[in-house]
Amino acid sequence: MVDHSVTELRPRSWRRGNAAGDRRHRSWPALHYCEPGSRPAWAWSGPPQQISNRLRIEYPNDLGMRVSHETIYLSIFQSARKALAPNLHRRLRTGRTMRLPAIARQSQGRGRIRDMVPITDRPVEVESRTSAGDWEGDLVMGQRPSAVATLVERTTRADTAGRFTCWGIKCGPVRQALTRDLAQVDPGLRRTLTWDRGREMAEHAQFTVDTGCQVYFCAPRTPWQRGSNADTNRLLRQYLPKTAGLRAFSQQDLDAIADRLNHRPRAVLGWRTPAQAYRVALDEMVNQPDSAEVRSG
Questions:
Q1: Whether pTM exceeds 0.70
Q2: What's the CA gap between 293 and 280, in Å, rounded?
């Protein structure tokens, strides 16, 4: 049995990385169950999490046989500690040679967007595309740091392309470009906007106040949640290649490119153009009795 007071001090001294902590670490009985040839076989053939939890069952009353899976991982990957035999990483399932502890991988909050509304809170009717007024957006990158903000209406596939007022990709110019583009859209056709988690939308709350369009953010690494915008951006690449300096394009140039795409027949629309589909959606909205009452009120 190991002195409990020493055991309680081990994690702190180990994180500090001092010599005393390293010496105690090398003498930790539980770690030696990770060595090849230890008994039972599960101790060195299984993942660290399995070893950590199994030791609690095998030795319920021996605190010296308690070790977290993060401690095992660091003892494997930090060869300077010499707590375990070298090259034990090869016995891991992934075989990777580097790993950071979980506490080091946690985000510290820098770069996060405040008050994000996730896409799971978006109204269910948006997914069905039964009515127009729901948009998807993203940035089309050129020669960095130049970019263009694009918007695509989910039902009609009508799109816009907005130029920033200054060099670089900052939340202020992005919000201004998007607000300027949506200001040309009838208020009844700007209900929601779906965006990824890029920091350029940090001013989404002010954007919603200015336009009345609620912003919903996709889950991380899920571009298909704004698939209409991704498809249209691929078409834009014919005119806005990645190697181009997009600052050279005026707003008139971008409007002309968007107009070309809006008059391009699409299979998903039954070979109608987005401009035709958008006109139909606009006429339907204007002719709705409740819409007329809201507009007159």
A1: no
A2: 20
